Amino acid sequence: MNLARIIEDLKTNILGQTPGYPFMMRGREDVLFVHITKTAGTAIKRALNFHRNRKDFNGFTHAKHLSARDIRHIIGPEKFDRAFSFAFVRNPWSRTVSLYRYKIRKNPNIKLHSDFSFDQFVKTFYGQKKPSLAFAGKNYWTQLDWITDENGKIIVDFVGKFENIEQDSKIIMHKILGKSISLPSVNVNHPPLDYRTFYTEELKELIAEYFKEDIDYFGYAF
């Protein structure tokens, strides 16, 4: 643990300040980010100087991918409602390809099975009815699941789109910082490919059915 981390933990536990949650900017408790997987969230967090994943003084690891419900539970509804909260969403067909390529590159268990095709990936994870949120990993969630409460109401203040990230991130930055700054390029899948080339008609329909709520609400098309 480096000196900066030690000082941060001391402030948290001796002075009673809020822990360095990864959904908060450093030095700001009035900005909350719901980091949905594969929506350029890491770039946004680095640009805006959010806390990194870390363990607090009690050894609890704060995951970087927490839903709006998770965050509201951790900090309490009053603090959540006072803060400016935002998230980014992405075309489900594009996001699924990005998630597959990321998993192949980063997950050692999948790497052992180099013949694990995109067809298998989609049919394994999304070729069945969406399980209950209580029993499902977040990669099974719709993007609406990340930003809604128990009654299905959206509880974040702003939802940007990955496809409009330059424009939408400027809106957020001007609100938070009063200026816009450039986004770094991180966790980008290379080489860039047209996600449509990964799909057969069958796979296209499986994603369309599984993520129907996102597609309908956010107006996405293949």
Roughly how much helix do the residues carry, as a percent range?
40-55%
How many separate domains? 1
Biggest beta sheet attributes: 3 strands, parallel
Taken as a percent bin, the fraction of beta residues is 5-15%
Strand order within the widest beta sheet: 1-4-5
3D shape: globular
Count of alpha/pi helices? 11
Tally of DSSP β-strands:
5
Description:
- It is a single chain.
- The protein is mainly alpha-helical.
- It has a single domain (3-218), classed as Rossmann fold (3-Layer(aba) Sandwich), CATH 3.40.50.
- It is 43% helix and 8% strand.
- The protein has helices at residues 3-14, 41-47, 68-75, 77-82, 92-106, 108-111, 118-126, 143-147, 165-176, 201-210, 212-218; strands at 31-34, 54-55, 61-62, 84-89, 158-161.
- The strands form 2 sheets. A 3-stranded parallel beta sheet has the order 1-4-5. Strands 2-3 form a two-stranded antiparallel sheet.
- α7 packs parallel to α10.
- The radius of gyration is 18 Å and the shape is globular.
